[in-house]
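Checklist before submission:
- one chain only
- standard amino acids only
- sequence pasted in full

Submission:
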Amino acid sequence: FGGGGFGGGGGRRVNKGSNLRVRVKLNLEEVANGVTKKLKVNKYVGCTKCTGTGAADGKMNTCQTCGGRGQVTRVMNTPLGQMQTSSTCPSCSGQGQTITNKCTSCYGDGIVKGEEVIEVKIPAGVGNDMQLSVRGKGNAGAKSGVPGDLIVLVEEEEHAELKRDGTDLHYELYISFVDAVLGTIVEVPTIEGKARIKVEPGTQSGKLLRLRGKGLPDLDYGRKGDILVHANVWIPKKLSKDEKEALEKMKDSENFKPDPGKGEKSFFEKMKDYFHN
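Returned file contents:
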């Protein structure tokens, strides 16, 4: 639990507690709106019996070796003259103070194993594997030292129907052949609930429908992405006799013959439009 460097006050060593890492799982709604989580964390905390000093009676003595400076200075005579070097005091390990009677709970370290409930505010728009830092909520530093930080690793749970792509969400919509021909109104899932969207008559399989502003917020700017609805025309694999006869009658109709016009874009053109929007 040592660490840190030599601060002010004559170079005394400052103990710094180590950082802690925890994982927190978020669903899509929590990612979209932000959330405050209460996390129970097992960690090193300051010893209450000695108030973190490590001394049974709370009394710390000035180190006799370094005079409380935490460093010792040695002067060596060399052919070129005197050379002065400074190093960490071996008697107090750079603390500047020593303990005569060690605390029986922490054995002089000033820290013990414990737990703490920490409230973590997670902003809207975070992503999977993103790290958030909560300053001073890691392990306590030995002998009233500086505590480390709590590093929170975000783990995003997959949604059953919506797939994330940055701030955009994708949804695979399956419609019947009849609905694709005649058009219909369908409901699609969003973060807030269901939304109605119009499927125009003559919709082709693979057409992208867009619900603007229904996606996730950008972490830095707050602007929301879209929900991209991928229309898939469901072709039945088995037909009854009557269904087959009905389709046979329409087979030779000019309206049922493939005739893509200039307005019908290829798959690659659709994807190009998507990435440029």
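Reviewer check: Helices lie at 8-11, 28-33, 177-182, 241-250, 267-276.
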